[in-house]
Amino acid sequence: SYPKTGSWKEDKDCCSWDGVECDNATRHVIGLDLSCSWLSGSIHSNSSLFLLRHLRSLNLARNFFYDSLIPSEFGNFKNLTHLNLSHSFFSGKIPYEISQLSSLVSLDLSYNYPLIIETPVWKRVVDNLTLLRELLLDGTGMSSIRPNSLMNLSSSLTTLSLHDCGLRGKLENNIICLPSIQTLDLGYNDDLQVSLLNSNCNSSTSLKFLDLSYTRFSGEFSDSIGSLKYLKHLNLYHCNFTGSIPTSLENLTQITHLILSSNNFIGSIPASFGNFTQITYLDVYDNKLTGPIPSSLGNLTQVTYLDLSYNSFRGLLPLSLLNLPNLSTLRLYNNQLVGPLPSHVSGLNLIDLSVSSNSLNGTLPSWLFSLPSLETLSLSDNEFIGEIGEFKYNSLRYLDLGYNKLQGSIPRSISRLVNLTNLYLSSNKLSIMLEFEMFSKLKNLQVLDFSHTLLSINNVTFTLPNLWYLNLSSSNISEFPIFLKTATNLESLDLSNNRIYGQVPRWLGDVGRNSLSYVNLRANLLQGPFPTLNFLSLQYFFVSNNSFTGEIPSLICNASSLEVLDLSHNNISGMIPKCLANFSVLSVLDLRMNKLHGTIPATFAKGNHFRNINLNGNQLEGQLPRSLANCRNLEILDLGNNKINGTFPNWLESLLKLRVLVLRSNRFEGQIGNPKTKFPFPNLQIIDISNNQFNGSLPRKYFKYLKAMTNVNESEVGLKYKRDMYYQDSLNVMIKGSYLELVRIQTVFFTTIDFSNNRFIGEMPKILGRLKSLKGLNFSHNKLTGYIPSSLGNLTNLEWLDLSFNKLSGEIPMQLAELHWLEVLDLSHNQLIGRIPLGKQFNTFDNDSYMENLGLCGFPLSRTCNNETKQPTPSTLQKEDNLEPENGFGWQAVSIGYGCGVIFGTLMGYLMFKFGKPKWIVRMVILEQHIMLRRLKNNAHRRAGRQ
Q1: Engineering a disulfide at 72: which of 58, 95, 491, 819 sits with its beta carbon 3.0 to 4.6 angstroms away?
Q2: Position 717 pLDDT exceeds 80
Q3: Picking from 436-440, 589-593, 711-715, 802-806, which range would have the lowest pLDDT averaged per residue?
Q4: Do residues 55 and 76 lie in contact, with contact meaning Cβ atoms separated by under 8 Å?
Q5: Cβ count near 72 (within 10 Å)
Q6: pTM for the structure as a whole
Q7: Domain ranges, ordered by start, for the chain
Q8: Which CATH number fits domain 576-867: 3.40.50.1000, 3.30.70.1450, 3.40.50.11270, 3.80.10.10?
Q9: Contact between residue 643 and residue 666 where contact means Cβ atoms under 8 Å apart
Q10: Are 200 and 177 in contact (CB under 8 A)?
Q11: What are the Disease resistance R13L4/SHOC-2-like LRR domain coordinates in residue numbering (predicted)?
């Protein structure tokens, strides 16, 4: 592009000017091409442009008419056949006068955001522009236009491009039957329901280009696509297709581009795809395809781009794919491929080879490092072993060998990769020496990830001027890398889980002064005063699990962009800066396990974004600030183990998203009382108010409305926080008598109530039986009286129940014996009487569960009952237990993922691993004299199973 008008001279014939075409006979200007001419500003109605009344062709594409309207005076060009105003930043409405240009053959107004066309203008275009062969309105707002009106366009139309126009509704007619259509693009109209390809039409054979990407289909792919025998380009990305890829596609013998990515196709790739002799681009990324990769794809000698990623292809990588002479991009990542890479290949011209996230193994063949044009090499998350080969050429820009089993050191030839921008070697068994000679030449390096390796630093200064991402977490380093001093553009720094000791150097505050947004120094041996960094651009700041002392500096009030602040598990003292409550985007404030004192700031403003506030384990006092009620997005509030006083904060019940409330071990007192709102705490799943001085009756009306504890549907009950790619929510909860830390609790199907160690009186409300998703219930160490409600037998998910140290009376309800998952039971130190129920889990509890209830009798107590009836025989008990499947219920532990740092997990798998399956499933009750021996034997077996 260049300013064409800059060469125009008034003393020369205008017909000789650049971009001007004149009629040879009349010398009238009939053509004006000022595309890519750096024109700017607005076109006014009195512009001299509109004096050119003989114009037949006008091209003003790719200029800079920012926010300029299209003048209605364009309607004066009555002879205009070609008009192109695309990519020129026009806005507003397409003027009605454009539709008056009845001689138009080609109209291109595409990509002028936010240009729109209204229904009257569109109707006139359809009715009046009967000579149109090309209509391109990509990016033009057409949400008010009825899709079926497209069928009324000019019968001469060969090109119709309405990409990303906001079309909506159902296109019922088969638009590929327009008589002359050759190019049709309706892509990225995601509210457009298309019913194409359902019938044949004779005229469709002329179609060469069809893009229906990101439109709405439903059901399987129609076989009639095979009738488009002249089709060269077919894009059906993200169209919701299901079923198998139709074999009729084999009829598209002229196809050069075939894109079927991001659908739900199943089955295998038809072997007939190997007959596409002219295809250059084949993409079936992100489907549900299975089976081996057809070796017939090795016949695609013209293919340059082949993407089979994100499917479930299995088996070996066909050697034939690595013999394709024109192949430049091969992407096979996230499949189930196995086996080694071939030891020898020849003639490869690959630019991009990506086979990460498979199960490939063996050593890395030398040819991988000897491809002269290779720019991207991604082999991560496989099972490769051995050493990294010598790099022969300098073309590599992206190298990812992370998450393998590679050993040895980095070859010194890595210094040849002067074009390298991304280097990932994380999670291997590599011994890496960061030294000047190897890395000083990598001036283009932007991303460096050596996490989870054995790293040594030759702490000599060298410059990586373009570095913006550095991850050296869990790499065994003991000092800050000095080369960071020159990392002026750094945005993300992760040095967590190392052995870095001492104070944070002052120069770290100058790193990435205007760009640093992520800093992670957690789990080191750092000490001294709180680190003072340049907080202006920080969004994520982690220094937990160190030994920092002193107060939180006032400079942190400059960090108004903070989203996550984690200072937990240090020795930080002083008061919480009031400004932290004022931050508008702060989502996570984790200050637990420090020595903070004073009161909680009372300045939480409306509209804040707090999701998690954790102040557990400090020395905070005073009352809870009422401004916490402004935290409308709050999901976790953990204030346990402080010195906070006052009454129960029932004003928090209006926080509709609150799922975790922990107030344990404070100085709260008084009665909980009745709710103040109609539906209090609708999403609360964990409430712990233990170790306070609450009194009065248990809050029956609150229990009535704990909807998240009532619903046993895991998809509705599980804590579903917005997953933060950096921060893992965690919480200490009393589980089965021990405090355990739940990590990443947003994926946990977990509910518990702990009111223990208070002064509650009265009876347990029967309505507790409605809380069917409850895992744990602890009312111990209170002054409760009356019977244990039989409705607790409805709590079929209950795993631990502690009612000890109360004044409960009456018999133990037989219904409790039906709680299949009950692992821990403590009814000790009450006034219970009668026979202890038998069956299932109750056959596993020992004396400790019932001690100091002088009126109880029966197994497992030595005290027999009066008029004792015969105990069930072992065969009877075994028969009872075998009502369940032989191997019990299986809880599958789900692995935890942390992309770019994201972790997935469930507590269910952890509990299965930690505590085993319910005892009644894996134990058979036998004679009383053998019970203890059998328990010891089974416990030993379970322990061995965990190892």
Answers
A1: 95
A2: no
A3: 711-715
A4: no
A5: 13
A6: 0.82
A7: 576-867
A8: 3.80.10.10
A9: yes
A10: no
A11: 181-380
